[in-house]
Amino acid sequence: MPANRPALLRRAVAVAAVxxxxxxxxxxxxxxxxxxxxxxxxxxxxxxxxxxSVRIGYLGNLTHATVLVGRRTGxxxxxxxxxxxxxxxxxxxxxxxxxxxxxxxxIGWIGPSPAINGYIRSGGRxxxxxxxxxxxxxxxxxxxxxxxxxxxxxxKRIATPQLGNTQDVAFLDWAAGQGWxxxxxxxxxxxxxxxxxxxxxxxAFRAGSVDGAWVPExxxxxxxxxxxxxxxDESALWPDKRFVTTNIVVSQRFLRAxxxxxxxxxxASVKTNAWINANPDxxxxxxxxxxxxxxGKELPANVLDxxxxxxxITDDPLAATLATEAEHAVEAGLLHQPDLKGICDLxxxxxxxxxxxxxxxxxxxxxxx
Length: 369
Fold this sequence. Notes:
Elements: H1 5-27, E1 53-59, H2 65-73, H3 75-80, E2 84-90, H4 93-102, E3 107-110, H5 112-121, E4 127-136, E5 138-142, E6 157-160, H6 166-177, E7 192-195, H7 201-207, E8 212-216, H8 219-225, E9 229-233, E10 244-251, H9 252-257, H10 259-278, H11 280-295, H12 301-309, E11 311-313, H13 319-332, H14 347-355
Parallel strand pairs: 1-2, 1-3, 6-7, 6-8
Antiparallel strand pairs: 3-10, 4-10, 4-11, 5-8, 5-9
Helix pairs in contact: 1-4, 2-10, 2-11, 4-5, 6-13, 8-12, 10-11, 10-14
């Protein structure tokens, strides 16, 4: 290990701890999106585990389509009966993990890097990955007047959503694979990494302050609509083009205290995913409508259609790729070599899948057993 690596790792931990807190101070543990007009609680419906509500967190991205669709169509509320499904929308995964750890939400849809970081920072005590949601939907989009090949990314300014988030780690790993050196924390090196909220990245791209971005959908397709070109789809870097983009995590405290509520949410997720895959056009419209409620504006067709096509909805958390992404974070200098044994608990998901007549999924050795 290089002599400066321990100091780098200590700085990484410090920065990773501070950034979510700054984000939370700005957004108050995630914004509460607009009211649902399709998910009213049926009069007399029984509460699950006696709970008044289950608090669900997610990001306003199409890669969180399960929650967008399940919320909009009422799948979650139906399974929870008299227990209200309440929601908080976050701008980035680290702030959602902080909310989960603080008890402000109970269950969340989130990318792998924040989940890994949250698990490691808590000594394996605060969360479990209990299911999958999405694969794919991440692209490197560039200004074609500045970059015409992968080699020309060197020396340019490339945006990622946030230091240490899933796409940030993926880009750092890809850059290292090109033989380029980049300081993970400052983002300076053979290529400059600009951490930019997905909401403002299109403005930065339009203004020319970044030359490209490694981002999830729908931001990637927004950039294409602004004249960008897809230079690389991250799925091309993975076996079978499958890699975890979004998983379901739960507070371990909540899982122990309210297993029936967690099972109800998983049932809703599995039913929602089946409906999405069977009704892609209707699901796309439902997801877009919820995005419009959450953000104040629905996506135009030239953004929505290509974004939706690049995302694969799945119940499988793709645990083997989760372990690979953890290795990428280690190699980037953002994480000590982690022990992820126990990060997954797929017992309840596999029970739900079997009851639905579907195959169980594998934890790739990351379960407690």
